[in-house]
TrEMBL record:
Keyword Ligase in record: no
CDD domains according to UniProt: HTH_LacI, PBP1_LacI_sugar_binding-like
Organism: Paenibacillus aceti
Keywords for this protein: DNA-binding, Transcription, Transcription regulation
Gene3D superfamilies given in the database record: 3.40.50.2300, lambda repressor-like DNA-binding domains
Record domain HTH lacI-type: where: 3-57
Annotated protein name in UniProt: LacI family transcriptional regulator
SMART domains: HTH_LACI
Keyword Transit peptide: no
Pfam families documented for this protein: LacI, Peripla_BP_3
Amino acid sequence: MRVSIFDVAKKSGLSVVTVSRVLNNASSVREKNREKVLQAMKELDYRPNSSARSLASGKTGIIGLMLNTLHDTALDAIVTEVNDCLAEHDYFLALSISQHEDTFHRSMFQEDRVDGVILLSPTNADIYLMELKKRKIPFVILDNQQRNPTVPSVIVNNYKGGYDATKHLIELGHTQIAHIRGSEPLLSSRERERGFLAALEEAGLEPFSIEQGIFSITSGYEIAKRWMESGQLPTAVFAADDFIAFGIIDAFKNEGIRIPRDVSVVGFDDQIYSKEFHPSLTTVRQPVEKIGRQGVEMLLKLIEEPAKRNIIAEFDPELIVRESTGTPRRDNPSDNLPIKV
């Protein structure tokens, strides 16, 4: 039969509360009583499980993480880092995945289910925040899509990412540069576009075009097809994410438009496929390990010190230059498009 905390209490002749305090390393326990509990644990070969630790600390030892999708290797890498970092602190991770934020699973927010919650890239954090604050559950938002200085968050400097991507294309000699935006409500989309425009303005250039897209391969493919059908191509494209970039490259390659000889393409996120794609994709890498680890450290501090002041941590992304960008051709890549009769 498995030895329980109650067996230790009986063996030591002390209360369950005292045993719990010993398990929790409480300083209020008399040294004589601490030795009795430790001796009883040794004689019974008792190893405290998560339930015992929970009883001892008044915590569940579980952190909840809520996100919209795992069909994104950048988000998956953040989740992996969060899980590894929590394990280092003897916490377990509970995932809740919902594509529809207005119908999220509220059971995670019930009393005593989790010690804290991490929200990963929510498009509308407000629907969570009201519930979390009402129940006094510590939380942190990773990749916050709203400007809210009163909410503990870890964010990426998307403006710098958009600027660096565009600056790279300008330094290669491109002047006809297009941008495909990400989904409209997202702050990250707006900031990447703002960086794109700032780099062009600094160089005295106008955008070839700015297209509204969504973070999907299909979106990039369809917009690139429209450019080809119009008979006018940019010499370079900054896509708001790698999936859009994959769609652009696929559409161009199908029509014999060569990457990067005819058109250079830059993505954003550095999805795991980016270096495997042909040609490998120049992109802006999100510091996923730093985001995940910083988020865990912030949350655990909030759990230990609930009154702690909210912190906003920001990390810079990194431009990763690969094979999909190069110097522009002297002639116009549109000259290679098939003539429509």
